[in-house]
Write the structure tokens for this entry.
Amino acid sequence: MIIVMRENATLQELSGVIRELEARGLRPRPSHGNSRTVVGVMEAGAAQLEGVASLPGVEQVSTMSTSFKMVSRDFRAEPTVINLGGAQVGGRNFVVMAGPCAVESTGQLLACARQVKACGGSALRGGAYKPRTSPYSFQGLGEEGLKILAAAREETGLPIVTEVVSPDAVPVVARYADVMQIGARNMQNYALLEAVGRERKPVLLKRGLMSTIEELLLAAEYLLSNGNHQVMLCERGIRTFERATRNTLDLSAVPVIKQLSHLPVIVDPSHGVGHSAYVESMCRAAAAAGADGIIVEMHPEPAKAVSDGQQSLDFGAFARMMDAVRPVAAAVGRPLPDADRPA
Amino acid sequence: MIIVMRENATLQELSGVIRELEARGLRPRPSHGNSRTVVGVMEAGAAQLEGVASLPGVEQVSTMSTSFKMVSRDFRAEPTVINLGGAQVGGRNFVVMAGPCAVESTGQLLACARQVKACGGSALRGGAYKPRTSPYSFQGLGEEGLKILAAAREETGLPIVTEVVSPDAVPVVARYADVMQIGARNMQNYALLEAVGRERKPVLLKRGLMSTIEELLLAAEYLLSNGNHQVMLCERGIRTFERATRNTLDLSAVPVIKQLSHLPVIVDPSHGVGHSAYVESMCRAAAAAGADGIIVEMHPEPAKAVSDGQQSLDFGAFARMMDAVRPVAAAVGRPLPDADRPA
Amino acid sequence: MIIVMRENATLQELSGVIRELEARGLRPRPSHGNSRTVVGVMEAGAAQLEGVASLPGVEQVSTMSTSFKMVSRDFRAEPTVINLGGAQVGGRNFVVMAGPCAVESTGQLLACARQVKACGGSALRGGAYKPRTSPYSFQGLGEEGLKILAAAREETGLPIVTEVVSPDAVPVVARYADVMQIGARNMQNYALLEAVGRERKPVLLKRGLMSTIEELLLAAEYLLSNGNHQVMLCERGIRTFERATRNTLDLSAVPVIKQLSHLPVIVDPSHGVGHSAYVESMCRAAAAAGADGIIVEMHPEPAKAVSDGQQSLDFGAFARMMDAVRPVAAAVGRPLPDADRPA
Amino acid sequence: MIIVMRENATLQELSGVIRELEARGLRPRPSHGNSRTVVGVMEAGAAQLEGVASLPGVEQVSTMSTSFKMVSRDFRAEPTVINLGGAQVGGRNFVVMAGPCAVESTGQLLACARQVKACGGSALRGGAYKPRTSPYSFQGLGEEGLKILAAAREETGLPIVTEVVSPDAVPVVARYADVMQIGARNMQNYALLEAVGRERKPVLLKRGLMSTIEELLLAAEYLLSNGNHQVMLCERGIRTFERATRNTLDLSAVPVIKQLSHLPVIVDPSHGVGHSAYVESMCRAAAAAGADGIIVEMHPEPAKAVSDGQQSLDFGAFARMMDAVRPVAAAVGRPLPDADRPA
């Protein structure tokens, strides 16, 4: 259940609501959005909330039947738009985030950043902390990787997207990143969601590889109910029986999420299919399906990548993909940002 | 293993090969394609085929490592193009087949046919024989339904696509249909595949809802190895854990099949997602992904449909979908056929 | 909807019900069980059946909310027991059916039959018609295989279980087999289900690897509603993402089916796991879970089997499995038949 | 790659190996097991390890082809046995851990503890920290719940099993718990695995509902390579398309894991099937399959449970389950501990 406060409610009114709820044995959890504060209460029965709707400052007690609340279109009708270095994610444009799976060196990353910039991409991705299935695999450069990312931003102006894998690491990642990524394996790591939810930085939340769309929305609810409203949802493929692709990219998640939620949707075709040969096709399809953007793995020499080389585009393939996506994005009325600028 | 005969091989040479293989204890199975005859042999070891490559009329003994042979790009490099009432499936155009799940009445079907025609569709679909999960569900109008389909073709000129559900029914369906559809449940009904494989009519072969792409190609191999080379493969959603959609539409099957096979690929977003609200998004995505066409369920009054009403577009939604797909198809260089015609 | 006739209803009363239903525009489908005749009608509304319950000879009009009717425990409370050469499937005993995947030769099959007999098995399995994913794989010996099976029955007294893959082949298979098997790929081959439903021979219906338990029950409903009530359901593994096993054996299907239906449940651990090393463990588990029996693949020389060698037990492993299953079956009160006989 | 030190190697020899590996640019990670120390190195090529096998104190450089190392049967042939309040998990006995999903009150938990004890269970389970899909659901009593668990141990002597959900909470949970549980959602929460791996308390590691058996073994590898060798693996159902059960309990994981690893395997039928009516059947099946134990949810009043009531046994059903499992466990030679004690 959530209690929505009026836009012009006072702090005193909020305190009054909180004290009243506590007096009823509930644990109120206030969350301050851009225009509105809401108070979540866990597992309250209708009886326990009787009369709350008429307390001073309260606009309504939500009786939404969906399990998710603040991420719902019923809670907020207009789409959430997130500023990403000038591009508006969820707004008019189709945005492309690209870069290597892992930051390996300054040279590798800078080369990628320049190619992203040159081809019209809106952000640079790169992992400094890598969650790996085996303890014996390369786990990322850590803060050194974050510094390399910051240097690339310095040179190109591209905002950077990078993963955070534990609550401890949230402060250091938040210091460097423009977008904090929560990976598929951590979609239901609630301690991490709460820590990231307390930051005020945009988040890219990836769908777990065997998570339903409803569970993805509920994971996002952890972020919003902790006060972080700048959340992008990312479809990156689900695990199925099919073996021709690494995962099965569920592009129908795009219209489903658009119907249920006001949050922007990004598609990750690289993890979705797992083979570079199929990535461009899925980038085009994501744009046509109505996604707000894509996040794509690219590497100067995919065959030498320390991770995910098989699914990374080389620079030529990336440039061709961008050329192929541009007219499709335009055809659905969501041009790439560079198409809006004078040459 | 398959033995490929030279283009100008004689019937006598073919007989010679067959007799020789039989003498070695094998069961040769000749298949006559448009330009080429091949002879399949089951489970032959390399030793049993020694010397066969130098028999008169033999071009090569295929040593392909893929389990499928005649459907493979290695077997035939150029794409298969199938004529569908003037539209070329697998050729320059993006084709749209549409109509109701089941033929219910002359009035219902004719209304659909006119709408398909008016909006630029290339073929009319409609089920006369319906495979149903429950024995107590409506099983279709049978031959009466085929006659109604034929009447609609008569009036509109649209070729008709309709399902065949048992070997017995192949002759009657072949008499009326322009394209015989093999449904998802029957993808591995080998008696049916063989019966349809002996016809010389185009086939739309749907992927089983829990079949891999490789199994789909092997099912198509049953058709080609029986001599029917006019096969379209259809992605229609696979069964996964996700419940927001009826199935999970695997659009990555499009680039995967295009890489492995020369056969055209059609996408069925209606069964893929199962909710009319998500169909248009997936039609656009299918066009952008590189599919050769789509097959879409439409009904004059979806709420009253005897089957699949939830996923059927009404006439207005169908027209809007066509308007939305047209620029996307054009953006990837595969315009709808009507875009090629003078107004 | 189904109309259940009284036990002592006359044929005239039945005709009266049928004529009345036809007069109301319905298509009645009578089905004659051992003690009871029922009349199924497709998609009738409650209004169309008004007053039918009081026609002469009618016991009740079923208002079951489950999609399946005659297979339901609500329709028949006592378990269905099927006589299998003296063993009672679904009765007191736990039965073991075993033999090779495919009948390859008289010698191979007779050796298997003797081992099944010697170890206390109740039936001999062996495929004469093999549905194969590839058209180039061995498809079985056909009627010759059926004759070999009959010869093995002649010698050992074991009833034989063998697959039927097309409606055309039902008569010949019914002539030889004691139990007709419908394979996983054909679970929703409705023409086949109807043809087998018109026979009066026990059927082993395997769950499709893509099918829910409800769909399995509805496939069985096709058999019962066509008059064949001697149906055993077979869990044989479903397709999941796990790759350590060929399929994922869903043993929880045993208690689920037992709760919903009166039909016996057989487990096929060989196809379920796909590796001989894991078969015995799952045979024990099937007995403990409450299954009525198991069907197991065995081969004199698994490494030389023409199909499914990897999952076939050799004779020694089969004997050890039987020794391991016997005390488990006894521990759950369902001893093997030989335990009931004097030594 | 891992370097295995001799049993009698000195600390100086270990330091020598570590310095040598660091000099070669590798990052050695020593792990001290009961009888053996191993040094893991990430992503080392064979060339980089040349000569390491002949350094003083080194027994061998593992060239295992499996991705997991220390959890492998190749690394340690004899089964790992874990002492659980006198019961030997992985040893002679079949152990039962039971209790409520969540600790709700002292009264509720003590009642459960007494019933577990009375029926012959070996450990008490109960969640104090609950990972929940929705931020608005009950998240557990926290340390208060741990204190209630400790009180129940005090009274009954039963060791307690309880979940830890974040690295921060590891110290407090380790202070109270006898077995730290890592839940399915956290199976690939590497920060948590590393923190628990640094403890010296037994761990129950649950398979993720989206995880392959190989991934489960690799998650365990994180624990062992950090020095914690007392790991029990827990199969608790995987996510599939089937909807009759909450998950699909993959009992074939038992023989697969037994073949690959020396670690004990526990089965959780409650989460596996999700309905109390099916739990007993799967408890029996788990014992017969060769599992080392089960963990079962039980509640004094399932209908009033704050979580997972649908799948919890009431006290009567729990007692009946124990009576049913006892003879099955005995039949496979793994009696419950109480069967070994004089009455």
